[in-house]
Design a protein that fits this description.
By secondary structure, the protein is α/β, with parallel strands linked by helices. The protein contains 9 helices and 10 strands. It has one domain: P-loop containing nucleotide triphosphate hydrolases (Rossmann fold), CATH 3.40.50. The structure holds adenosine-5'-diphosphate (ADP) and magnesium ion (MG).
């Protein structure tokens, strides 16, 4: 990862706030801009990035040569555990999750990539902290939150933990919101990247690359992308 410009770990203490959506769309739109980007799904229990991209797990192939080369979705380099598990539940418990995550990361061949977006399972468990500690300043935490009070309390605790772990700058994306988390971000001293509105027809964007390309709320993701790729 050292050779890359920026690596983002997309985190949230809550499930269902849009981590997978935000990671996948940011990575896909970045690839559409001809940036060399990789998307890694580390949600071993509920991988969902392939559903957003509309990829059938059986079509995913990895080449091995002194490591594992990502599958290509057009120009997007893509790694998902669904390719190994083929929709079967993966019975990993306790620290075997952390071990599996780090092992997968350690064998990945990221040759030629500029950016990496890593989707993670909900929560801030041992596997997240292991990831953040081990990868240290190689990665930037990108926290996703909705403006709901149910999300905010838990995200606040998570941001405190990240700060205590000295992971450096913490980034925040407000999903299904209207911009009101600017103030929240200021109070917690995190970098506010922007918001994505709640879009009732979102399901129609998901499940195919053409749907993602034509998604009416694409502009909001593009704004965020502009910010995170600007000073790299
Ligand atoms: N901006 C949005 N507008 C409408 N629905 C959204 C938006 N962002 C995410 N969703 C929907 O919310 C649900 C949870 O999103 P997901 O990315 O799976 O969350 P997480 O990965 O945090 O669990 C999905 O059904 C997704 O389509
Ligand atoms: Mg998810």
């Amino acid at each position: 990862m050292k050779g890359l410009k920026k690596n983002f770990v997309v985190l949230s203490s809550k499930g269902g706030v849009g981590k997978s959506t935000v990671s996948t769309l940011l990575a896909f739109y970045a690839a559409e801009r001809n940036l060399k980007v990789g998307l890694i799904d580390l949600d071993f229990t509920n991988p969902s990035t392939h559903v957003i991209l509309g990829i059938n797990p059986v079509e995913i192939t990895y080449t091995e040569d002194k490591g594992l080369f990502p599958h290509k979705v057009n120009s997007l380099s893509y790694i998902t555990p669904i390719a190994f598990t083929k929709d079967l539940p993966l019975p990993l418990r306790g620290d075997s999750v952390s071990k599996a995550l780090l092992e997968l990361l350690s064998i990945l061949r990221l040759d030629g990539l500029e950016y990496l977006v890593i989707d993670t399972p909900p929560g801030l468990g041992d596997e997240h902290m292991d990831l953040m500690y081990k990868l240290g300043d190689l990665v930037k935490p990108l926290v996703v939150s909705t403006p709901s009070i149910l999300s905010l309390g838990s995200v606040k605790r998570m941001i405190h933990l990240l700060k205590e772990a000295n992971v450096g700058e913490v980034l925040l994306v407000e999903n299904m919101g209207d911009g009101k988390l600017v103030e929240f971000a200021r109070e917690l001293d995190v970098v506010y990247l922007g918001y994505i509105p709640y879009y009732p027809g979102f399901d129609r964007c998901l499940g195919s690359l053409e749907g993602l390309r034509k998604c009416p709320i694409r502009g909001f993701f593009e704004n965020i992308l502009g910010k995170i790729t600007q000073d790299a």
